[in-house]
Design a protein that fits this description.
alpha/beta, Rossmann fold, six-stranded parallel sheet, 5 helices, 12 strands, 29% helix
Length: 205
């Protein structure tokens, strides 16, 4: 993955939107944390937010799969970010796919204020469809970084998050027991196998 270098800015504070996207286990949160820590080192005023429903690792911290972490504020609605991000130079948002679609206008308002907004999230759900507000965020972003995991079955580059368990909920929090990264070919193969199994089970029931 090419290293993202912050754009050069003059003394006037300028706002923009960065999106880091990819499948599960691709390093999205790791990259978000790296950029935020660089901003902190640069003595910027930084606030980090995550959806209140995401309590897999910690209620109040953004935590990557490699156990890197940074303090964050859980919010139940994206509009709360505007209220909590006054006089802030850099805003980080993790697991953006779980937020409501108002997140798009929230990020635009922050950028217009002169805030640097860094977003990390899944671009596709377990069916391979655009996930939540992510496609809209990608369309308005100034900078986009797509990171990749490694396909578990074949070792190729992975772009999909394959759900290993039978559950039709779009939002299902889980880790390696529930999901694995897959390339397009292995993802489609797994989806066909699950469909055959479901059809067989329905006929036997």
């Amino acid at each position: 993955m090419a290293m993202f270098i912050e754009p050069s800015v003059n003394k006037e504070q300028k706002g923009w939107i960065e999106v880091v996207c990819g499948s599960m286990f691709s390093g999205k949160t790791e990259e978000l944390i790296r950029r935020l820590k660089r901003a902190i080192i640069a003595n910027k005023k930084v606030e980090i937010f995550k959806p209140a429903i995401d309590v897999r690792y910690d209620e109040n911290e953004v935590v990557s799969h490699d156990q890197n972490s940074i303090r964050s504020t859980p919010v139940s609605h994206s509009e709360n970010i505007l209220l909590l991000a006054n006089d802030v130079e850099v805003v980080g948002i993790d697991e953006a796919q779980f937020f409501d679609k108002e997140l798009v206008s929230v990020c635009e308002k922050l950028a217009k204020r002169g805030t640097r907004v860094i977003i990390a999230g899944l671009d596709m759900d377990f069916l391979g469809k655009p996930f939540g507000p992510m496609p809209y965020l990608l369309s308005i972003a100034d900078y986009i970084t797509k990171v990749h995991a490694i396909c578990v079955p074949c070792g190729d580059i992975a772009v999909h998050s394959f759900r290993k368990i039978s559950d039709e909920q779009t939002v299902l929090l889980g880790e390696k027991e529930s999901y694995e990264p897959r390339c397009r070919k292995c993802f489609e193969k797994g989806m066909r196998e699950q469909q055959r199994t479901a059809t067989k089970d329905s006929k036997n029931s």
